[in-house]
């Protein structure tokens, strides 16, 4: 069964438009967890344009005190500042992403063949200092999965941006879905778990979960937050869980 982690970055981005404490990341995070999300995801960028470093202790406390069976997933480029941050917060999952600080959002996975040795050291460090599950952001490229496995990571998170970007072109979307499925099959054959995220919606999530039956987790923020404006956070989480194949 595919689990849903709710990415709160878009909530933080809306909050940061004003010097006010709402919408509340912890408040909406609580609603998402009450509605059955397996966890919460954040991507604290260096410029703090959405999730801020100061948000992390409150979210950690929310999960620890009210939802101890759920998970905190922190994404980011593995700079020394980021590594020290996750070592302080102790999330259940760390997702390493090759972001440039100037990027608007994550838009590509790691080149594991080029970056594998560097990532291997970071993965080894985080397993000792956090005990977290380590996931690495990956493009839909089966040929990269052997090098990904050599880093010692536990999972790859498939970048689904190209798949989501084909929302108005069914044939192109079908081709992108096959690329993702072939990459997932290669990863699973090597003993890796598979996550996915970026531009996923209720409409395109079900075909993804059906085509990749061993998909462990999806992390969804923008589309989920957009739907929450119409349906509310709790009902939106239930809609996405149903799209994952869960009985809600």
List strands and helices in order, with pairings.
Elements: E1 3-7, H1 9-15, H2 25-34, E2 39-42, H3 55-66, E3 71-76, H4 80-89, E4 93-96, H5 112-129, E5 133-138, H6 145-150, E6 155-159, H7 161-164, H8 170-189, E7 193-197, H9 202-211, E8 217-220, H10 222-231, H11 233-243
Parallel strand pairs: 1-2, 1-8, 2-3, 3-4, 4-5, 5-6, 6-7, 7-8
Helix pairs in contact: 2-3, 9-11, 10-11
Q: Your description of this structure?
A:
There is one protein chain. The chain is 48% helix and 16% strand. With 248 residues, it is of the alpha/beta class. The radius of gyration is 17 Å and the shape is globular. An eight-stranded parallel beta barrel has the order 1-2-3-4-5-6-7-8, surrounded by six helices. Strand 2 (39-42), helix 3 (55-66) and strand 3 form a beta-alpha-beta unit. It contains eleven helices and eight strands.
Corresponding CATH superfamily: Aldolase class I
Give the ordered list of helices and strands: EHHEHEHEHEHEHHEHEHH
Hey, roughly how much beta strand do the residues contain? 15-25%
Structural class: alpha/beta
Spatial strand sequence of the major β-sheet: 1-2-3-4-5-6-7-8
Shape: globular
Query: Low-confidence stretches at least 5 residues in length (pLDDT < 50)?
Result: none
Instruction: Give a short account of the largest sheet.
Output: 8 strands, parallel, barrel
Helix share, percent: 40-55%
Supply Rg.
17 Å
